Amino acid sequence: MARSFNCLFLNPEILIPVSFFNDNTEKFTILQQYDHKLKVYLSELTVVLLKNDICSKANVNSNNMKLWKVNVKKREIKDKNVSTEEDIVQKLGGKEMELEELFEEYFKDELNNQNYIVSNIHIIAISATDSLEWSIDLSDTSTVVSNVDAILSDFRELFKRCCCEKLKLPIFKPDKAHPYYNAIRDLQIPSNPKYKQRPLLLMNDLPTINGNDGLTDTTVLEDLSQIKEIMI
Q1: Would you say the C-alpha torsion 100, 78, 55, 128 has a positive or negative sign?
Q2: Do 116 and 172 sit in the same domain of this protein?
Q3: Is residue 136 part of a domain?
Q4: Suppose 88 and one of 23, 94, 151, 190 were both cysteines; which one would form an S-S bond, judging by CB atoms 3.0 to 4.6 Å apart?
Q5: pLDDT class for 180, splitting at 50, 70, 90?
Q6: Residue 106 is part of which domain span?
Q7: Sign of the CA dihedral with 134 first, then 54, 32, and 112 last
Q8: How far is CA 131 from CA 50, 67, 127, 230, in A?
Q9: Of 143 and 75, the one with more pLDDT
């Protein structure tokens, strides 16, 4: 074996070796492609090929996975509590490996026996979803409050009207003679434990037997459609 690099998945923590071998031509590695193995020379190995291979071996989804070039001890990663892309850059001096680039572009020194320590972690794999793109803790409190107020300002009048008008909603008196009355009365919604009562609100939009109106005053309900949506 000519050279081996250690790739560490952060979440979940999995260590995958990336091994290279020599033949009469040049260094090569063996990639797992579905149910067969593929010999790929170093000069043709792109980062995306490597990413798909190690994700397959680790049995993790490769869609959002990113690879970062580092050269540190595994203990340093733990001691510095590295868990995000920002941590990799700021605490480890990591460099993101672009998918279209060749692997050897990032490891020229190591492949030439320079700055290579066999027991180090050379690659970190982390899902983009594990990294926080933004945190409320990074913003001033007054800025956050101001931004929220600006967003809610357009809805203030609607909220006020809702508070006033919801007391004017008609008393619900369903028509027990309606053929769907029993079916709706017995209907349960077990997926939401908050709604253990029968969902009589569904009867609002059913026509009566003569088909003139709903079971309640549909004109009023139409006037309060926006409020009804908020209440639901």
Answers
A1: negative
A2: no
A3: no
A4: 94
A5: low
A6: 3-129
A7: positive
A8: 21, 13, 7, 33
A9: 75
